[in-house]
Specification:
By secondary structure, this protein is mainly alpha-helical. It has 7 helices and 5 strands; from the N terminus they run H-H-H-H-E-E-H-E-E-E-H-H.
C-alpha cells in the first residue's frame, strides 16, 4: 500500500510483529479488530475450499452410485466424516439419493464423536477401528472399493498406511491377453518408470503380476 512503512504481506498473521506494523501504518484504526477480521476471512476461505471438495466428491458418488463409506478422503479424517454429515444434511432436504448401503449407514451414529480417555473418538466406524487395531495386509491388491481395485501400502515418508485405489469403473474389460493393448497401455502410462508404491500408476502397471488373485486371466511376470 502506498505510504506504508511496512510490507504487511510478509508478516505472520496474529503475531506482535503484525500488530505493530499495522499500528504504524494505520494509526487511526483499531488494529486488533483488523487482524481478527483478517484471520476470520482466512479461515472462512479454508472452509470454502473444503466444502467445494466435498461437493465435488458427492457429485461423483451420486453419478457413479458409490456408497458414501467409499468416499476418497482418508478413513478417519475430518473430511471423511464431514462428507457423510453433508449427505445427512442433503438427504433431509431431499437433495441426495442414497444407495441401499447408505440407508443403513445413516441409521448409525457415524460422523458423530465422543471423548474417551481424553481423546476424540469417532462413533460407529468399524473400518476405522480395524485399521487402528489391526494392520491390514500390505502390498496385496484386492477387488472392490470406489474403483475396480485397491491396495494398502505404507508410505515411506510418513510411515502411515495408505489406501490406493485404481481401475476403470465404466465397464471396460481388462485385456491382459491382448499383447498390442498391453504394450500400448505400458507405453501411455510409462510403466517402466513407475516406482512409487503409493501411486495408482504403480499398481495399474503391475496388474498382470496379480492377475490370478484378482480373478483375471492371461497374467504373468510382465508390465501391461
Amino acid at each position: 500500500m502506498a505510504g506504508n512503512k511496512h510490507d504487511n504481506g510478509v508478516h505472520e498473521q496474529g503475531t506482535d510483529e503484525t500488530r505493530k506494523a499495522y499500528q504504524e501504518d494505520t494509526p487511526g484504526q483499531k488494529v486488533e479488530k483488523y487482524v481478527k477480521e483478517n484471520q476470520k476471512a482466512y479461515h472462512n476461505s479454508k472452509k470454502t475450499f473444503s466444502q467445494i471438495a466435498i461437493n465435488e466428491t458427492l457429485d461423483t458418488l451420486q453419478q457413479e452410485k458409490i456408497n458414501i463409506l467409499d468416499n476418497p478422503f482418508r478413513l478417519g479424517s475430518m473430511m471423511y466424516f464431514e462428507t457423510i454429515n453433508e449427505v445427512r444434511r442433503l438427504v433431509a432436504e431431499d437433495r441426495y439419493k442414497l444407495t441401499e448401503v447408505d440407508k443403513n449407514i445413516l441409521d448409525t451414529d457415524i460422523g458423530d464423536f465422543e471423548v474417551y480417555e481424553g481423546e476424540l473418538v469417532p462413533l460407529d466406524c468399524p473400518q476405522y477401528e480395524l485399521i487402528e487395531a489391526e494392520e491390514p495386509e500390505l502390498n496385496s491388491p484386492k477387488k472392490g472399493g470406489p474403483k475396480k481395485y485397491y491396495v494398502y501400502v505404507r508410505d515411506p515418508q510418513t510411515k502411515k498406511i495408505k489406501k490406493v485405489t485404481w481401475g476403470d469403473t465404466t465397464g471396460l474389460k481388462v485385456k491382459l491377453g491382448n499383447e498390442k493393448a498391453r504394450k500400448s497401455f505400458a507405453a501411455r502410462h510409462k510403466c517402466s518408470q513407475q516406482k512409487d508404491k503409493t501411486t495408482a500408476s504403480y499398481w495399474a502397471c503391475r496388474l498382470p503380476y496379480y492377475a490370478k488373485q484378482l480373478g483375471l486371466s492371461d497374467g504373468g511376470n510382465f508390465y501391461w
